Each structure stands twice: as C-alpha cells, then as structure tokens.
Amino acid sequence: MRAVVQRVERAVVSVRGEAVGVIGRGLLVLVGVGHDDEPRDAEALAKKLVGLRIFSDDQGRMNRSIADTGGEMLIVSQFTLLADLRRGRRPSFVGAAAPDIAEPLVEEVARFVDAAGVPVATGTFGAHMKIDLTNDGPVTVLLDVVEGRLK
C-alpha cells in the first residue's frame, strides 16, 4: 500500500458536484493498493497514520499526532499512486490492485482509523472525484507499507 498524507486545515471530496467527504483540521490521505497488499497492510498503514507525529506542539515542533490533536481524516482511494513511469510517457497501472481487491482494503484502513477514535470521512471508490483542500504547512509525507511493515 502506498499513501500520500497531507496535513490540512480542511478538505472536501466531491462526486458530480456533491460533497461526499468533508473534514476540518486533520489529514487528507490518498491510498493506493497494490496486487500483493492484504489486511495486515491496511492495519499497519492505519496505525502509522493515527500515530504519525506531524502536528505542532506548543513549541511549534512536529510532535503531536492526529489522535493527540482531535483532528479528522479524509481517506480517498487513488490507484494512480501505483503508476509505473519507467518506460515511455504514459503511465502503466498494472501494479494497481483490481477494484474487488482494492476497495475492501481501503475500507479496512478507514475502519482501523475509526476504531482508533479518529473521525473518518471517505471518497467514493471508483468515482471521478474532485478534492478541494487547504494545506497546512504545507506538510506532505509518503508512506509505503509492505508485508505489514513500513518500507
């Protein structure tokens, strides 16, 4: 699993002009699922997201997690994170899992985050989505989870 994590002041994901997921201060997480990903990867990613210390403490240092700040998380599936750009100019998406594999794993990430007490909103799997966000910082980090561990 691969994730792009952005610290945001707010984020909204819309489908056909309708907001389907809205958060205030927290994390926007774009999640890509590969062929070999499994539930333990979803759990490992969720645990990392909940504990990731990228929010400022009273001294302005990145020392607090979303759980510490009471923030929210917006999780959006994005198969293009698995793009292979090594050859040619057009990306290949052969590394991305099929929808029947990817969708349950993205939902599993959201379930684990929710179970940790972090409010979660999601996009609509497989839909053409538009995301409106206000970055905070900006702070953007990349996470890769393989075999249940951060790579």
Would you mind describing this structure in some detail?
With 151 residues, this protein is α+β, with helices and mostly antiparallel strands. The chain has one domain: D-tyrosyl-trna(Tyr) Deacylase, Chain: A (3-Layer(bba) Sandwich), CATH 3.50.80.10. The protein has helices at 39-51, 66-69, 99-115; strands spanning 2-15, 18-23, 26-32, 55-56, 62-64, 72-77, 120-122, 129-146, 149-150.
List keywords for this structure.
151 residues; alpha+beta; D-tyrosyl-trna(Tyr) Deacylase, Chain: A; two-stranded antiparallel sheet
Outline the biggest β-sheet.
7 strands, mixed
Q: What's the gyration radius in Å?
A: 15 Å
The helicity comes to 10-25%
How many distinct domains?
1
The CATH topology assignment is: D-tyrosyl-trna(Tyr) Deacylase, Chain: A
Order of helix and strand elements from N to C terminus: EEEHEEHEHEEE
Summarize this entry quickly.
The protein has one domain: D-tyrosyl-trna(Tyr) Deacylase, Chain: A, CATH 3.50.80.10.
List the helices and strands and how they pair.
Blueprint: E1 2-15, E2 18-23, E3 26-32, H1 39-51, E4 55-56, E5 62-64, H2 66-69, E6 72-77, H3 99-115, E7 120-122, E8 129-146, E9 149-150
Parallel strand pairs: 3-6, 6-7
Antiparallel strand pairs: 1-2, 1-3, 1-8, 4-5, 8-9
Helix pairs in contact: 1-3
